[in-house]
Amino acid sequence: MPSQSPFLILAPPPRSKGQANR
């Protein structure tokens, strides 16, 4: 599904999320 492609790109990986949460 092409809709899922952009959605995943918008959401950063779990690694980036951990740093931002910090």
Can you tag this structure with a few keywords?
mainly alpha
Level of helix content?
55-70%
- Cα separation of the termini: 33 Å
Class by helix and strand content? Answer: mainly alpha
Radius of gyration from CA coordinates? 11 Å
Mean pLDDT across every amino acid position:
61
Please mark out the parts with pLDDT under 50 across 5 or more consecutive residues, or reply none.
none
Order of helices and strands: HH
What is the overall silhouette? rod-shaped
What's the total number of strands? 0
Taken as a percent bin, the fraction of beta residues is: under 5%
Number of helical segments with 4 or more residues: 2
Main beta sheet, described? Answer: none
